[in-house]
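Bench log, entry 3. Co-assembly request; chain sequences pasted below exactly as received.
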Amino acid sequence: MNMVKTQTKPPLFALIASLLLLGLAIFPWLGLPVYFVSLLFIVFLYVTLASSWNLIGGFAGYLSFGHVAFFGIGAYVTALMMKGLNLSPFWTILSSLPAGGMAALIAFIVGYPCLRLRGPYFAVITFCFAFVVELAVKNLDILGGPEGLWLKSMDLPIHVIRAILFEVMLVIMVLAIALGIWTSRSKFGAGLRAIKEDEEVAQTMAINSPKLKLQAFALSAFFPGMAGGVYAYHLTYIHPDIVFDVMISILIVLMALFGGGGTWLGPIIGAVVLTLVNEGLSTFVKAEFARIIYGCLFIGVIIFMPNGIMEFLKRGRERKRV
Amino acid sequence: MNAVLVLQSLISGIMMGSVYALLGVGFSLTWGVMKVIHISHAAFGLIGAFLAYTLLQWWGLDPILSLVISVPLLFVAACLVYRFLITRITQAKEVIVASMILTFGIAIILENLMLLIWSPDPRLLTTAYTSKVFILGPLYFQYPRLAGFLMSAVGVLVIHFFLKKTLTGKAVRAAWQQSDAAQLYGVNLKRISMVTFGLAVASAGAGGVGMAFLYSFDPHAHNLWLIYLFLVVIVGGVGNVIGTALAGLIIGVITGLSLAFLPYQWVNLLTFGLLMIILLIRPHGLFRGEV
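Structure output for the full assembly:
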């Protein structure tokens, strides 16, 4: 449906998208308080994470509950490069590339055996994998161990730093979304959807499912790795408890499911809505209450709209009749 | 490496393992019988531990006696969760995955309720016999661990005999093996599932008290316990009570022995690594069997 609609009106879609992008790109230079720039930065971050998770979780139906591992790996790779090579912070884009590359490489190595597991077993093993990585990082002194790592901040006023990071994250997000759109229209995406429907049948139809899954998993780890690298600059201090927080893994899954996995737009909507909700909640209520509300959201999503909010709204009327 | 040290770690491993077994049995049953991966199982267990802690603080009630209060409470809570939440997803296309997401939500809610009620400080169950030991030749047994061991052994045996000997237990097994046929023979699947879920959660409460005898605990501890649950159940075979109990002991012994030679953090790393390897080699468990 989506596919057809956007294909019939490409000029309009492209116009809206480019206007939106232009607006976002000049946003940090408008002189608004830094808070809003940082807020949008976090929104971009989660859109990137949810969109890239969607490749393996939404399209192929392999729910990874450990995606925070790739995010954390990216953050640590960037931090190490900055420390080891004394990179100037202006090279953020270039230095987040190897961070993403490393995340994708690790995803490739880990994914090769793990993607043979299906359903809950895949979810469990990815969940464990994130724990293993976190514990390993905590125990390695070269990575700062349990004390974490400090990064050099840029020698610039804070709003300029934020603006630079904002633009970098914007680029990463656009790339992640573009990948999502491409996937939803390409043969690659069709193959992944076939795997989600029925993997055996997909294989009999000459779909090389191990290869496709591995590609999707590595790609879905690449962008979180890059985003983790940029996030490390944003925080200037990284700690295993922060960049490997289980809650991030869970939020990614929730965002993608909330918006509707398997479509490119779903995770974007989910990430934007839930990040703003999260931000609002953490400003006005205690963190514990905010998380309780999150828990309720999980339950509500899976009970009332297992296919995401877009599908839910579409089917609202039918549901009433039944 | 001397023999006494090895024997001592073996004993403490068995004591730890029995608690893992008790905690794992219920998890294994809900997974096997109901196709529900109950992520909040460990969180319910943690509530059992916190209730024991509070009752000990208030009335000086022994943690094991506190089960008289916490087990029925957890049973009722679990029945309500089953009746109002879990039944809503049993018709889903992918029950197991849906149940994981649903119970993830429950676990988050429980964890934060515990944070609000009991604060994030780590707690210890300090009873009159906490520091007492029972000495047998060169070996010593800590009383709290001994208590946890006995409680767990009794708990696992009770569950085992419940499934093998009582009518309700037989219905649970029937429902697991052939749910359609069982329904034809008059097994009320919904009621049976609710009872199974309630019992599983109640046993988690007892398991939580056992864990509290072994380690300090805080409201986040259930995440770590959950990994142990997965390890125990995947090694033992889903739905297999005796297998799960054995797996608990094996994992306890492995942890006990490695604790003697490795720092604590590396032990966790070892256990999780072990789980990943077992999942890759034998995803359906080392022992396959029936309820």
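The interface with chain A takes residues 37, 85, 88-89, 92, 94, 96-98, 100-102, 104-109, 111-113, 115-116, 223, 227, 230, 234, 265-266, 268-269, 272-273, 275-276, 279-280, 283 of chain B (CB under 8 Å). Residues 113 and 230 of chain B are 24 Å apart (CA to CA).
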